[in-house]
TrEMBL record:
Residues 27-394 form the Aminotransferase class I/classII large domain. It catalyses: L-aspartate + 2-oxoglutarate = oxaloacetate + L-glutamate. SUPFAM superfamilies: PLP-dependent transferases. It holds the Pfam family Aminotran_1_2. Belongs to the class-I pyridoxal-phosphate-dependent aminotransferase family. Keywords: Aminotransferase, Pyridoxal phosphate, Transferase. This is Aspartate aminotransferase. It is an enzyme of class 2 (transferase). One of its GO terms (biological process) is L-aspartate catabolic process. NCBIfam families: PRK09257.1. It comes from Glonium stellatum.
Length: 399
């Protein structure tokens, strides 16, 4: 019999790690991964995570299923971290929240919820460019995906006017996805004043804001500062939904710890929304994994561990900021005539270098420097040990 899969086409590779792995150059540099590395280029487990994990293990909890919406001590604390202790929706108990399979899972639950219940057009507008997975997640959720202007390649900065114009031109009541901080892939964020204007445009259009917050604390080193946009929208009376990831800010990547929440109008509405989220999640994966959520819960709820963690988040953010400065400094020392100020003005894990696909190819083939073709480099992969060689490679490629 003919195989059922005889007509399944070969898909393109989803990651660049393969080419990096195949390179035998001992000085090869991997700037493609979206994970923090220490100054030796090694994966980093936060000491607060080790301590929290020890507490979890020593408490000899059972391994019974969590409820459909996860570990309640975790979700409660996650909402507090995002919305803040003074948040009206939190105080009024009108935020529906569920644990999720990290940020990606939160986006997918959000996509599915909007597809099922959003009363307006089921179209979501995402920035150009956006995290590559946004398009796929929302399309697979059954939403139509459209774009709004975001990045200006001439200034290597925000196309603020284009963004606001596009928001104003969207049909009334459109769904708009916003990166809460540390925009991926560009590292370009609106300023607080610009966020105020963006909130106004969203409100004017009666649009529905969906915040993706994958880097809270990772951008500035301050979890409150990084939550500015979300909290400002709420102060303005908007009621967004939110995807949270603890992959980056707690370094819990593979533990898949996240949350999806919906700000509701009332406690009664929250109950109805909550009931439907459960109905959505049940056939997807029944209930989420517990170990990582317990770790995150310890960190968020134990005051001493919380303080330690906030210090460690700041250390990670600071190392990245230092590497940005060092890369720029090294390029200037080499005599590069290009303006590299965007490297230090951008924020978060990634720098959008402005290098073209051909230049990225040369970086890989001739210099064993691997990153995505759009010119995005993971600053977390830069160390005091490789920054000089990296700057030389970029200098050679850009002249
Ligand atoms: N959203 C953005 C913008 C991201 O950059 C990422 C990770 O790279 C995610 C969401 C989700 O990541 P995870 O599913 O690992 O939490």
């Amino acid at each position: 019999a003919v195989s059922a899969w005889a007509k399944v086409p070969q898909g393109p590779p989803v990651s660049i790690t393969e080419a990096y792995k195949a390179d035998s150059n001992p000085e090869k540099i991997n700037l493609g991964v979206g994970a923090y590395r220490d100054d030796k280029g090694k994966p980093f487990v936060l000491p607060s995570v080790r301590a929290a994990e020890k507490k979890v293990v020593e408490s000899t909890l059972d391994k019974e299923y969590a409820g459909i919406t996860g570990v309640p001590t975790f979700t409660k604390a996650a909402a507090l971290l995002a919305y803040g202790p003074d948040s009206a929706p939190i105080k009024e108990d009108r935020v529906a929240i569920t644990q999720s399979i990290s940020g990606t899972g939160a986006l997918r639950i959000g996509g599915a919820f909007l597809e099922r219940f959003y009363p307006g057009a089921k179209t979501i507008y995402i920035p150009t460019p956006s995290w590559a997975n946004h398009n796929a997640v929302f399309k697979d959720s059954g939403l139509k995906v459209e774009k709004y202007r975001y990045y200006n390649k001439d200034t290597i900065g925000l196309d603020f006017d284009g963004m606001v114009a596009d928001i104003k031109a969207m049909p009334k009541g459109s769904i708009i996805l916003l990166h809460a901080c540390a925009h991926n892939p560009t590292g370009v964020d609106p300023t607080e004043e610009q966020w105020v204007a963006i909130a106004e445009a969203v409100k004017e259009g009666d649009h529905y804001p969906f915040f993706d917050m994958a880097y809270q604390g990772f951008a500035s080193g301050d979890t409150n500062k990084d939550a500015f946009a979300l909290r400002h929208f709420i102060k303005e009376g908007l009621r967004p939904c939110l995807s949270q990831s603890f992959a980056k800010n707690m370094g819990l990547y593979g533990e898949r710890v996240g949350a999806f929440s919906v700000v509701c109008e009332s406690g009664e509405e929250k109950k109805r929304v909550d009931s439907q989220i459960k109905i959505l999640v049940r056939p997807l994966y029944s209930n989420p994994p517990i170990h990582g959520a317990r770790i995150a819960s310890e960190i968020l709820n134990d005051p001493a561990l919380n303080k330690q963690w906030l210090g460690e988040v700041k250390d990670m953010a600071d190392r990245i900021i230092t590497m940005r400065a060092l890369l720029k400094e090294n390029l200037e020392k080499l005599g590069s005539k290009h303006d590299w100020s965007h490297i230090t003005s951008q924020i978060g894990m990634f720098a959008y270098t402005g290098l073209k696909a051909e230049q990225m190819d040369v970086l890989a083939k001739e210099h064993s420097v691997y990153a995505t073709k759009d010119g995005r480099i993971s600053v977390a992969g830069i160390t005091t040990g490789n920054v000089k060689r990296l700057a030389e490679a970029i200098y050679k490629v850009t002249g």
